[in-house]
Amino acid sequence: MILEGEPEMNTEEKILKRPPTLTDEVSRILSEAIRNGQYKPGERLPTESELCKTYGVSRPVLREAISQLKFEGLVVPHQGRGVFVSENGFKSTLRFDVPNFMDRMEVLNILELLLAVEVYYTGLAAKHRTRQQLASIRRALERLVKAISSDEIGSEEDLSFHMEIVNASHNQYFVSLASFLEENIRHAIRTARENSFYFQTLNRDVVQEHQAIYLAIENQDVESARQAAEMHLKNAAARLTGQFPK
């Protein structure tokens, strides 16, 4: 929605102006220090308290930054000893450019990737979820419904819902991959949705799609869970491309 007196800006421009988080900045600085040889392969990084003091950040921010470096293969944590620079040196990491949602083919390519990942781990969640995990998924759904009922977009609640599902897959590789996709693709999709009034008219459909996913997981119906996840993703892609002229 564009407010009166606010200069018009297309969705792509708004996505490109997303500022980096404090975690991103700390991760970037540490990554450069490792790549430049300030911290050498096999060397232990300074302690958490030392790094927090150096960069002026809290422990949660630092730990999240370290997790990013771990995911990139730059560091290896050792229980009781600290975090060490990988002996194998850094590896090249997969990065995605910000999606161009004006390009229908690019959106369809993204959809194919998400279908391959999210549909399958949703089925795993239906198969492996515990009672406690089902309760966490239900609470995330309730928060999403409440947000949408209050005329909010519910982006954070939507993220929480899907992350609870992937956690219930009991597959750490899917958890890591889902986190990567969230950082590189799904965040951009949510940003596009937040910046479009078009999506605010479709809240009922979004709620029903999430409810269908939850019910399938509750019933431990693997096939229905995958079908519900697939339908949700296809509808999301249709909503995203439908707001733009052909």
Q: What do these coordinates show?
A:
With 246 residues, the protein is mainly alpha-helical. The protein has 2 domains: 18-85, Orthogonal Bundle (Arc Repressor Mutant, subunit A), CATH 1.10.10.10; 104-242, Four Helix Bundle (Hemerythrin (Met), subunit A) (Up-down Bundle), CATH 1.20.120. It has 10 helices and 2 strands, in the order H-H-H-H-E-E-H-H-H-H-H-H. The longest helix has 25 residues, at 104-128. The model is unreliable at 1-18 (pLDDT under 50).
Write out the CATH superfamily name of the largest domain: GntR ligand-binding domain-like
What's the level 1 CATH class of the largest domain? Mainly Alpha
Low-confidence stretches are 1-18
What percent strand?
under 5%
Strand segment count: 2
Terminal CA distance: 21 Å
Order of helices and strands: HHHHEEHHHHHH
* Shape verdict: globular
> Architecture of the largest domain in CATH?
Up-down Bundle
Question: What is the radius of gyration computed over CA atoms, rounded to a whole number of angstroms?
Answer: 20 Å
Counted up, domains total 2
Task: Report the total helices.
Answer: 10
Largest β-sheet summary? 2 strands, antiparallel
**Helix- and strand-based class?**
mainly alpha
pLDDT averaged over residues: 80
Query: What name does the CATH topology of the largest domain carry?
Result: Four Helix Bundle (Hemerythrin (Met), subunit A)
Helix content: 55-70%
Main-sheet strand order equals 1-2
